[in-house]
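Practice problem 4.
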């Protein structure tokens, strides 16, 4: 096991079981993981950053994943990494589109912080079609597969969508 800290960044709105699986896999490879909530002004979040942070912390606690902290930042990933003295981030990829997107983000981030390295972790096939956007679309349609999100996130979604059926 590498003795390094890695950052797993995203908006996580909401945090899915696919995200949780990537954090677990990152934790197997690295001693410490920082789940970094980046604020994306182009997106309209369902949950505010403080709610997302609390939901992720609770999901990690319930999954008994150790040496993982949750942080948030409103700036660039490269600036956060530099400020914290970190050089490696982990990104989960579900398909070729995700891979292309993450490689582009990697190149852009390195323009600001040349020491940055990105590790792409493929997701488990179970999570290949699960995204935060898919979860929100399912909630808007009134039905959500329980397997898509941690139980505490499902509870929070039910509060946002009172008529939501979780099956």
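Answer key:
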């Amino acid at each position: 096991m590498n003795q390094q800290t890695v950052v797993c960044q995203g908006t996580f709105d909401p945090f899915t079981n696919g995200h949780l699986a990537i954090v677990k896999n990152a934790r197997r490879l690295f001693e410490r993981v920082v789940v970094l909530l980046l604020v994306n002004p182009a997106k309209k979040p369902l949950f505010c950053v403080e709610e997302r942070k609390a939901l992720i912390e609770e999901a990690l606690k319930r999954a008994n994943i150790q040496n993982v902290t949750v942080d948030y930042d409103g700036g660039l990933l490269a600036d956060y990494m530099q400020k914290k003295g970190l050089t490696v981030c982990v990104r989960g990829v579900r398909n070729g589109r995700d891979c292309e997107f993450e490689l582009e983000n990697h190149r852009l981030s390195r323009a600001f912080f040349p020491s940055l390295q990105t590790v792409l972790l493929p997701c488990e096939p179970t999570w290949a079609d699960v995204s935060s956007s898919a979860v929100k679309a399912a909630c808007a349609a009134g039905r959500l597969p329980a397997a898509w999100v941690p139980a505490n996130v499902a509870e929070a979604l039910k509060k946002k969508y009172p008529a939501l059926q979780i099956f």
